[in-house]
Amino acid sequence: MKNNLIFSMIFLLSLLFFLAHTGEADITCSTVTMKAAPCVTFATGKATTPAAACCSGLQQLAQSVKSVDDKKAICRCLKGSAKNLGVQDRFLTQIPTACKIKVGFPVSTTTSCDTIQ
Prior knowledge:
Layout: H1 2-21, H2 29-36, H3 40-43, H4 52-64, H5 68-85, H6 89-92, H7 95-99
Helix pairs in contact: 2-4, 2-5
């Protein structure tokens, strides 16, 4: 009886831990900022092509995505930074194609991050 009670408590605690962590992104804004920083010169129109460091950083970021919440977190971080840095949408939208990266959502300052699937 005592073993069943202990097992039940461990099971419930594990379940609560799992549920508490569901729906949270594993990717932080500081990681997104660090990986995307080399893209700023192109995204603001100061360079004619994205730097190699831009493409490799975004490729690493894309490979680290494990969930929809990760995609939403990346979108929110990028949108927040874009406003502060003077990013121009006409350049930003070109980055995935120029870097040959499949993002899985439209890259734009007007993207609604909450609708990303």
